[in-house]
Amino acid sequence: MSNELQFTRLRHLRETDEVRRKNAETVLDVSELVYPIFVTLGSGIKRPIDAMPEQFQMSPDVALKLLEGVHSTGIDKVLLFGLPERKDSIGSSASDADEAVQSTVRQIKHALPDMTVITDVCLCEYTEHGHCGVLTPEGQVDNDATLSLLANAAVSHADAGADIVAPSAMMDGQVAAIRAGLEQSGHSDTQIMGYSAKYASNFYGPFREAAGSTPQFGDRRSYQMAFTQSDEAMLEIEADIAEGADYIMVKPALAYLDVIRRAAETFAGKPLAAYNVSGEYSSIKAAAANGWIDERGAATEVLTAIKRAGADLIITYFAPDAARWLAEQ
Ligand code: PBG
C-alpha cells in the first residue's frame, strides 16, 4: 500500500459535456445581460459604427424594431446613449424632452412595457468640447456647476419613462444631485445605477466614435479613476451608495476583474453591474474577423468570467448574440 500513488481524480468531472455542464459553477443567464444601444433622431436610420462591427446608430423606430427582436430572445434590459441634434458648451440638449434618448424611451415603454429602460446620464455627447461636465473659463471641468445639469438630464429621462438613470460623468456628488432632482420632480420610484468605479480607460476608444463624444482637448483623467487604483474604487462605490445609488458598477470589466470581485465581497447585497466596454467588444470582433480567435467561444468565456468575478449584471454589446447562444445550448 505504501508504494501506491495517492491522488484525487479531478479529471472525472471534466470528461464529458454532460458532466461538465452538471458541475458548472458559473452559468450565465440571459436575465443578467444589459444591451447598450446608440440612438439619434429621425426615422429609418441605421448607420453602422465602423469601430464596433454589428452595432449601429439608430433612429427610435429602428431601435424599437431591433429591441422587439431581442426581447423575444429574453433580453429585457437596455441602456440608451444619445447622439443629439445640437451641441453647445453646457450640453443643454441633454435634458431636451424631444431629443433622441427621451423619444426612444417613450417609444420603448409604450411598445415594450416589460423592457427595463436604463439611460446613460452624461454631458460628453452633448457638449461641443466633449467633456463630461461644463468648463470653467480656464478650461477645467467644473464639478459643482455640472451637478444640476446632470440632474436635469436625469429628470427628463424619468419624465419620458426611464426605469433607471445611470450617471457616468464621474462628478463627485452626482448621485445625490440626481436623487434630489428625482424626488423634487415626483420621480421617487426612478432608480439610479451609479457608474461608481469608472476608470479612465483606453478601452473606450470605439465608443467615442459610436457616440461622437471624443474630448476636443485633453483627456478624462482629472475625473475618471486611474487604473492604478483599487482602494479608491471602494471609496467611490461607498460614496454612491451613501448618496442613494440602487445599483453600483465597475467599468471596464476585463482589466478590472479583481475590482469586481472586491466590490462584490465588500458590498454584498448591492446589485453590482460590470460594463464589458466597447474596446473589449471590438478586440474580440477584430480578432475573430481575422480568423485569429473563435468569437462565440471567446465572448462566452469573457462574459462567464465577469459573472464568476462577482457581477450580477453584465452590460455588453454581445447581449443579443449571447442570448442566442444561451438558447442554443
Ligand atoms: C460617457 C460614457 C463612456 C462610456 C460609457 N459612458 C465614454 C467615456 O467615458 O469616454 C464608454 C462605454 C464603452 O466604451 O463601451 N461618459
List the helices and strands and how they pair.
Elements: H1 17-22, E1 33-40, E2 46-48, E3 56-58, H2 60-71, E4 77-83, H3 100-111, E5 116-121, H4 143-160, E6 164-167, H5 174-184, E7 191-192, E8 197-198, H6 205-211, H7 231-243, E9 248-251, H8 257-266, E10 272-276, H9 278-289, H10 295-309, E11 313-316, H11 319-328
Parallel strand pairs: 1-3, 1-4, 1-11, 4-5, 5-6, 6-7, 8-9, 9-10, 10-11
Antiparallel strand pairs: 2-3
Helix pairs in contact: 2-3, 3-4, 4-5, 8-10
The protein binds ligand PBG.
The site of ligand PBG has 12 residues, from helix 6.
Descriptive report:
Helix 2 runs parallel beside helix 3 (100-111), helix 4 (143-160) packs across helix 5 (174-184) and helix 8 runs parallel beside helix 10. It contains 11 helices and 11 strands. The chain is globular, with a radius of gyration of 21 Å. Helix 5 (174-184) links the parallel strand 6 (164-167) and strand 7. Helix content is 38%, strand content 15%. It has one domain: TIM Barrel, CATH 3.20.20. It starts with 16 loop residues before the first helix and ends with a helix. Strands 1, 2, 3, 4, 5, 6, 7, 8, 9, 10 and 11 form an 11-stranded mixed sheet that branches. With 329 residues, it is an alpha/beta fold. It binds ligand PBG. Ligand PBG binds next to helix 6.
